[in-house]
Amino acid sequence: MPTTDIEPTDTVDARGAACPGPLMDLISRVRGAESGDVIRLLSDNDQSLTDVSEWVDETDNELLAVDESGDEYEFYVEVA
Amino acid sequence: MTDRIAILGGGTGGAVLANNLAERLRPEIDAGDVEVTLINDDPDHVYKPIWLYVPFGKREPADARRPLQSLVDDRIDLRIDRVTRIDTDGKRLELRDGPGSLAYDYLVAATGSTLAPTEIPGLEEGGHDYYSESGSLALRDDLLSMTEGHLVLSVIGTPHMCPAAPLEFVFMADDWLRERGLREDVDITYTYPIQRVHGNPHIAEWAEPIMDERGIDVETFFNADAIDPEAGTVTSMEGTEIDYDVLAAIPPHRGVDVVEEAGLGERGWVDVNKHTLEADEAEDVYALGDAATTGVPKAGSVAHYQAGVVAQRLESEIRGRPATETYDGKTLCFIETGMDSASYVEFDYENPPSPAPPSEKLHWSKLAYNESYWLTARGLL
Is the bond preceding residue B61 a cis peptide, omega within 30 degrees? Predict the structure, then answer.
């Protein structure tokens, strides 16, 4: 069960994608998003745990939460 | 009853598949039990890897073109037309020129990649690519007149065709400028969207020391967001700005609209089972090459190998046998490391790449393959 009650604006389902696919899918969606949107990224790739946080640190976007309770990771990124 | 196979796209995947089917299903085709139709909107087949050499004056765009009719077996019904709608429920294709629509029993989307530079403000005006004929010629003009300044190679869109080509371009540019005595006056910068210089960590680990040794500057975590052609700047989503004099850019890529409109996948890429290459969202539809989202590179070798898999699966289905052939992710690429040296990688879903030491022999192997490619398109190699 998800441990966060954040309501995403949009979801990127990158389950099954090899690294760096999930991060690239997230970046692509952030490109087209509005400021304040919250993008939820679904990934089952362990590398995403470091890829996503490292990239968000390079930007003004914010990683609101990472839900690791299910079979896949859920990242919630608020667009700057 | 006749089994009708429609192949959309006459690039590497479509041409190899058509010729492979013509060979495998020769008795059925000759008896009128199977029809294979190949639809392409250009009368020419284009071998895109040639474009890498155009900016350096080594090849011409015409070297990459041959009439599709001359490459495809006579048993194939070749139609120069454009599909305007795919109806996967009714199993019909609407055609721009017609006549009428085309019914199919099996459909293969080999629809390739298209470029979408307009997704990045200023890119069309401010940058050139070598992923098109016009782009490679414009880049050649810019490079030939460049005697000093800053050459920037920016990978903007991923996934993109031939993931090794951006590395090849900067390695070749470095060597080419050195040979012409200009390297000290031209800085080269390579930008990449993630934290390393290539999507595959093994190739990135191999390439980074070479770039360092050659004095090629690197900007990672650089996702170009806007180009200002007047000011000559590229600005990234991460807030970095780079000045440029010549910008070689890898633009965002898409598949084709009819694929997306048919509900087969986002951005025109077909969602498939990465082993069987069957579409997730429709029955009796396959996809291969750039069009298929298998996670492996969008490269000619991939399309070639996948065409063999799809051909065997279709042969099995038509002959009433279980389709057992699967794609294992096999990918093969030569990687130019200069104007007279190259490396080579071969990998699959389970085994990562391990680039071979660069050598002149591998460079000539790459050039030799480029010449013999036309045998591949004919289904002979």
Answer: no
Query: For this structure, is A19 an active site residue?
Result: yes
- Give DSSP secondary structure letters for B319-360: TTS---------EEEEEE-SSS-EEEEEE-SSS---PPPPBH
Question: Where are chain A's structural domains?
Answer: 10-78
Average pLDDT of the residues in B20-42: 98
What is B117-252's CATH number? 3.50.50.60
Indicate the residue of A20, A21, A58 with minimum beta-carbon distance to B238. A58
Q: At the topology level of CATH, where does B3-113+255-318 sit?
A: FAD/NAD(P)-binding domain (3.50.50)
Active-site choice (A10, A19, A20, A67): A19
Considering the domain A10-78, what is its CATH architecture? 2-Layer Sandwich (3.30)
Residue A18 has pLDDT above 80, yes or no: no
Q: Name the pTM for this structure.
A: 0.95
What ipTM was assigned to the predicted interfaces of this complex? Answer: 0.89
Is B221 touching A (CB cutoff 8 A)?
Answer: yes
Q: Do B295 and A18 touch (CB under 8 A)?
A: yes
